[in-house]
Amino acid sequence: MSRTVQLFSLTALLMLASCMDSPETQVEGGSDDMFKAEISRIYGFKCALCHGRNGTSIIKTAPNLKDTKMTIEERIAIIKYGKTTMPPQKDVLDAKTIRGLAEYIDTFQ
Ligand code: HEC
Q1: How would residue 32 be classed by pLDDT, with cut points 50, 70 and 90?
Q2: Which DSSP category does 53 fall into?
Q3: Which of 58, 84, 86 should be mutated for ligand 1, with most atoms under 8 A from CB?
Q4: How high is the pLDDT of residue 31?
Q5: What integer best gives the mean pLDDT of the chain?
Q6: Which long-range contacts (CB under 8 A, 24 or more apart) does 81-88 make?
Q7: Buried b vs exposed e over 43-53: b needs ≥16 C-beta within 10 Å?
Q8: How many other CB atoms are there within 10 angstroms of residue 89's CB atom?
Q9: Cα(30) to centroid of ligand 1, in Å?
Q10: Which residues contact 62 (CB under 8 A, 6 or more apart)?
Q11: Which atom of ligand 1 lies nearest, measured to the CA of 69?
């Protein structure tokens, strides 16, 4: 009989523990948002000076990122290696950030 009670409280404890898990999952979801905010911030000081805060270029030679026809992989390549006046980022930003920036450009379109 007491064994049943023990099992019952164990189950209750496990259920409680799994409920307590859910805020953690939300924090993980939140950290994705934090990553996006971080990318937006990096874009702001690394790219916006030429390409504009919303992808509308400020300098003549830089194309509007709003109108880019490049795929994500092509964007990653130009961000990594640079081109003409665009500075390469491969030694400055990590691969995840570079991919994040390439995808961030989609938000302008
Ligand atoms: C000093 C100015 C400058 C900065 C800073 C700069 N770019 Fe550029 N970017 C350019 C120029 C100029 C080109 C055109 C290069 C060419 O085709 O000759 C370009 C091209 C691009 C292209 C290709 C667009 C297309 O469709 O041809 C992408 C994507 C891009 N930049 C993203 C970025 C990102 C992301 C950053 C920040 C990490 C950045 N750029 C920072 C000047 C800049």
Answers
A1: confident
A2: T
A3: 86
A4: 81
A5: 84
A6: 85/50, 85/59, 85/61, 86/50, 86/62
A7: beebbbebbbe
A8: 20
A9: 30
A10: 50, 51, 85, 86
A11: 26
Confidence (pLDDT) at 8 = 58
Count the Cβ atoms, other than its own, within 10 Å of residue 1.
5
Mean pLDDT (whole number) for 77-87 = 97
Rg (CA), the chain: 23
**101 Cβ inside 6 Å of ligand 1:** yes
Note the pLDDT tens digit of each residue in 44-72.
999 999 999 999 999 999 999 999 999 99
Eight-class DSSP state of 71: -
- The token duo for 106 is 């989609």
Q: How far is the CA of 11 from the centre of ligand 1 (A)?
A: 57
CATH code, 27-108: 1.10.760.10
pLDDT at 22 over 50: no
Domain residue spans of the chain: 27-108
User: What's the pLDDT at 1?
Assistant: 56
